[in-house]
Structure formats: structure tokens, C-alpha cells
Amino acid sequence: SADLVATTSESAPAANSLSAGIPPWLLVLTVFVHVLANSLLAQAVPTAMLGAMHNDRVRTAHALGRLSACGAMVDILIAPQLGRLSDAIGRKPLLLALPCVAFACRSAAATRPTIAVLILVKAVGATISSGFMVSLRASLADQYRRDTEALTGRLGLISAASGAAHAGG
Predict the structure, then answer these.
(1) 71-77 long-range CB contacts below 8 Å, 24 or more apart?
(2) Mean pLDDT over residues 57-74, rounded?
(3) Which residues contact 151 (CB under 8 A, 6 or more apart)?
């Protein structure tokens, strides 16, 4: 009983200090902007491909299906490596580097919206996005490992921001 009281009183300050992590508004803004950019790019690729394939919807649908399959394969192959890298070097380098890479890719798509660039950005973008979101969730899990209520709240904010960005996009 005394051990339980000691453990509870020791973990209380840790839980309180954890709640001082990333501000909720910054978490929501970061995820919202990230997912909104993905949603907008996701709409540009089919439109550009349809135009490049002379409005042949069947051919475009087949190409988009292949593109999605390739993007998923790249994600399956690379995402676990990003997770291992995140475990090895820490979460912060990936949380900083992946958005920078995503920005470079999206900038390339905006400044040179050719079919080849859009396809490359879409295929690589899925892996960048999932790597960022996995690193973000892992970082929150690390930060709030003793405060499950706060972790659940932060993960709920991520889901809400993602849903709002998809709807807005």
C-alpha cells in the first residue's frame, strides 16, 4: 500500500510536467496544414493525368490505380525503415526533416506541375506523410507515456485536424 502511494505521488509530477508539451493549437495547426497540403495535391494529380491522357477516364483510372499501388509499395518498404531510423536517432530529426522534404516536393509540383513531377511527388509524398504522422504519434506516445488521458486527447486532436483538413481540401 505504501509502495502504491509512493508510486502514485512520484508519477503525478511527471504527468503534470508532460502536459506542458506541444501546445494543442500548434499540434492542430501542424497536422491540419500537413493533411490539407496532401488533400490538395491528391486532387491535382488525377486532373492533370486526365488532361494528359486526352480525357480518357478508363486509361486515367488504370494509371491512377497503378500509381496508388506503387505509392503503397514504396510506403510499405520505406515506412518501417523510417520507424527504425526514428528509434535510432530520435523523433525530432524526422519531425523536422520530413516536412522540409515534403515542402521541397510540393514546391516542385507547384512550380513545375508536369505529369512526371506530380506522379513522383504523389508516390513519394505518401511515404513522407505517413513517416511524419508515425513520428508525430510516436513522439506524443513517448511524451505522454505516463499520462494516457493527455495522450488520448492529443491523438483525438490529430484525428480531428486530419478530418477537418480532408473536408476542407
Answers:
(1) 71/122, 71/123, 71/124, 71/125, 71/126, 71/127, 72/126, 74/123, 74/124, 74/126, 74/127, 75/126, 75/127, 75/130
(2) 87
(3) 140, 141, 144, 145
> Is residue 4 classed exposed, middle or buried when 0-12, 13-18 and 19+ CB atoms within 10 A define those classes?
exposed
Residue 160 has pLDDT above 60, yes or no: yes
- What cell numbers appear for 84 in the block? 527504425
Nearest to 123 by CA among 105, 142, 110, 108: 105
- The grid coordinates of residue 2 equal 505504501
Q: What is the pTM of this model?
A: 0.73
CA distance 48 to 77: 27
Q: In this structure, what C-alpha cell is assigned to residue 92?
A: 525530432
Q: Are 100 and 35 in contact (CB under 8 A)?
A: no
Q: By CB neighbour count within 10 A (0-12 exposed, 13-18 middle, 19+ buried), where does 64 fall?
A: middle
pLDDT at 74: 81
